[in-house]
Design a protein that fits this description.
The protein is mainly alpha-helical. The protein is built from 10 helices and no strands.
């Protein structure tokens, strides 16, 4: 439940609202419980095998991305009703509402008895968390009338981008983020970050040089030992 309704829990905590408000919607709780039971306890894994069929998986993934868009817009509007024209609050709540499952994953792991601090989404963001943050910024600008585009047009374009990118990543079986080239260029431009291949190449050169130095020192040591042994025999 924490992972399914993580966005609602996190956004409620940020706005000083009851974090268990999602429990009031019995239909959603029943739906999430039913899906959980069918995925893990359905006889012969029939339910899982049905949704492992690629076209059906693509359909479900597309529906999930559509839901993500509506969660972001609802979070931005909800934050604006509490804090008028507070950009950072609107972005944060929209981000939390759309990607709460990922942002709250460390707490959810801790509840299950698994602690993996290296998977912190705030330190190393996954693609869904990144694209949700971008969407929260865009919808905040549009809601504040700083982005000259109608809301329904922005919703349509953003949803199309989410669905197309998700389906492409699933079909190509690629885990690389579509924003990786842009991130690398911006990181090099503003922070002087070097590219990973050059680092690896540099490390390889250093290690090869270091190994050659070690080989030379070992050869010199063996020569000195031979000379000592020759002197003793004389």
């Amino acid at each position: 439940m924490l992972y399914c309704f993580g966005g609602s829990v996190l956004s409620s905590l940020m706005l000083a609202e009851p974090p268990i408000a999602f429990l009031a919607k019995g239909t959603n709780i029943l739906l999430a419980s039913s899906v959980w039971y069918l995925v893990f306890y359905c006889p012969q894994d029939i339910f899982y095998r049905c949704f492992a069929f690629l076209p059906l998986r693509l359909l479900v993934a597309g529906m999930k991305e559509v839901t993500r868009t509506w969660k972001i817009t609802a979070g931005v509007a909800h934050a604006d009703s509490h804090f008028k024209d507070a950009w950072l609050v609107m972005v944060a709540v929209g981000w939390a509402r759309g990607a709460g499952g990922g942002l709250i994953s460390n707490f959810e792991q801790l509840v299950r008895g698994v602690w993996k601090p290296e998977t912190n989404e705030l330190l190393k963001m996954s693609y869904p968390v990144k694209v949700t943050l971008i969407g929260a910024v865009l919808f905040t600008l549009q809601h504040s009338q700083y982005l000259p585009i109608a809301r329904h047009n922005l919703v349509f374009l953003y949803t199309i981008f989410l669905v197309v990118s998700k389906v492409t990543m699933m079909l190509t079986r690629s885990a690389a983020s579509p924003f990786a080239p842009i991130e690398a260029a911006l990181g090099h431009m503003f922070f002087g970050l070097q590219k990973t291949p050059s680092k690896v190449k540099g490390e390889g050169t250093t290690s090869s040089n270091g190994s050659s130095v070690c080989d030379r020192s070992s050869e010199q040591h063996r020569d000195s030992v031979k000379k000592r042994q020759a002197k003793k025999t004389e």
